[in-house]
From TrEMBL:
GO MF annotation list: L,L-diaminopimelate aminotransferase activity
Main enzyme class: transferase
Cofactor(s) demanded: pyridoxal 5'-phosphate
Protein name as it appears in the record: Aminotransferase
Species per Swiss-Prot/TrEMBL record: Sphingomonas longa
Amino acid sequence: MTDPSDDFYRMKRLPPYVIAEVNAMRAAARAGGEDIIDLGMGNPDLPPPEHVIEKLIEVTRKPDAHGYSQSKGIPGLRRAQANYYGRRFGVELNPETEVVVTMGSKEGLASLATAITAPGDVVLAPNPSYPIHTFGFIIAGATIRAVPTTPDEAYFESLERAMAFTVPRPSVLVVNYPSNPTAETVDLAFYERLVAFAKEQGLWILSDLAYSELYYDGNPTPSILQVKGGKDVAVEFTSLSKTYSMAGWRIGFAVGNAKLIAAMTRVKSYLDYGAFTPIQAAACAALNGPQDIVEKNRVLYHKRRDVLVDSFARAGWDIPSPRASMFAWAPLPPALAHLGSLEFSKQMLTEAKVAVAPGVGYGENGEGFVRIALVENEQRLRQAARNVKRYLASMGVNTPAQGAG
C-alpha cells in the first residue's frame, strides 16, 4: 500500500523506518496478551530521582510557571549544564553563548542541521548510526557520505578519502561515542586527532555524547571539548534521558562552538518556546543535586550487561561485552546469519517472545547485527536467554548443554 505522504519532496528521501516494523509487531503481540520481553527500544525502565520529581511538582504549583518558557533554556539550567561540564570534564563553558537547552538530543541535532545545512551540502555520518545522525541532515536537504564507526586507522583513511574525492567537499562530520548502536568507545587521543583533522580540512564536528555516564570497567568517556581548541570546531550534544532516567522529559543540551550555538538558538527561536518551565527547573535539580543516581544507574546497567552476555552465551549466542552505553551490538548467530537482521528480529519476536532492534535499521552496514537494549531487569534477561535457547534449538542450532540461567 502506498503511503500518501510519499507525494511530498522530503518524504521521498525518508525510507520506511525499519525498526517501526518490529515495533508494530511487538505492540500487536502485547495487545494480544503475549508476554514480550522488550529489549528493542532504549527506554529506561527506572524512575528519576525522587527530589527531581518533587521539584517538578513544586514548580508546577506556581501560578506563573505555566506560560511560555525560553527557547534556549532558562538561565539556571544553562548554568547547571556549564557547571556539569566543569565538574565532569574540566571544560569551561559560557552559559550565555556556548550552551543551549534542547528537547532531547534528537531535536537538538535536527535543529542544528536545519540551521547550518544548505541543499546539496555533504555531511559525513557514521554507518551504522542512530537514524537522526543521518536523517536530520537529509530532511534539511543534505547528502550523506558514510564513514565507519570503528575508531581505528581505517576510520581516518576513510575520512581522508571522503575529503579528497567528494564534491562538494563535506562540511560537517557527525561522531557518536559511546556509539548507538555499536557501543564502541574512544579515548581522548582519538578526539585530539579528530580535532586536528577538522581544523586542517575546515570541518564542523557534531559529537553526540548521550551515553557519557554509562561507561563500565573504570574507563570514563571523554568529551571532544576537552581537547585544546575543541570548541573552535565542535558542538556536543548530551541528554538527561539515560543518566537520570528522564527519557520522556525530553531535556538535552548542545554546548561548544559559539557560532554554531548562535545559529541553532536563532532557528529554535522560530520553532519552539522551549520545554515546560517546571521540567527545566526539575532538570536543574537533577544536575545540581545529589549525583548518587548516576553511579547507581551505571552499576545497574553494568550488572545487566554481565547477565546478558553470560546467560546468552550459555544459551548458544555469543555477544561481545559492550564497554559503554545501554546496548549490546550482537552479531546474528552464525547458523542464522542467512536470515538477515530484520527476519531474525521478527522470528525472535514471534518464536522467542523477545524484541530486539534489527541492525539494518541503523544503516546498511548494520546488516548482520541486532541491537539489544539493557532495559529489563536481570530476571527478565535470564528469561529472555531461556527463550532464545529454545528458539535456537528449534532452528537446529546446537546450544551448550548447561542451562541458560
